[in-house]
Predict the 3D structure of the following.
Amino acid sequence: MTPPADPFREWDVAYVLGSLSPGDRQAYEHHLDVCPPCERAVGQLAGMTGFLARVPRSWAVESLGTAPEVPPTLLPRLVRAVRRRALVLTAVAALVAAVLGAGVCGVFCWLT
């Protein structure tokens, strides 16, 4: 039997950066008292806020850059892929409906 997933498993960064609501922060702090893996994760991230505070704001904003340009062929390729998938799904649904219809008709004709 596998242990249940830890609902707080991904809260460590939000806690260290101070972005949890007061209620969530309190719940997470209670959880830290009983969960050594989460306590270790917070300990490993503890110095991160000091490190991030030393990064100049202008450098941080500039390093984000701009989003990469989307190739003009991307959207048409996606549309074709979606249409193909929709066509296949429609064909499969029609085949299933035909088989079920024939089966129902056969059973109905057999009973009468």
Notes: Helices lie at 12-17, 22-34, 36-45, 48-53, 57-64, 74-111. The chain has a mean pLDDT of 85. The two ends are 53 Å apart (CA to CA).
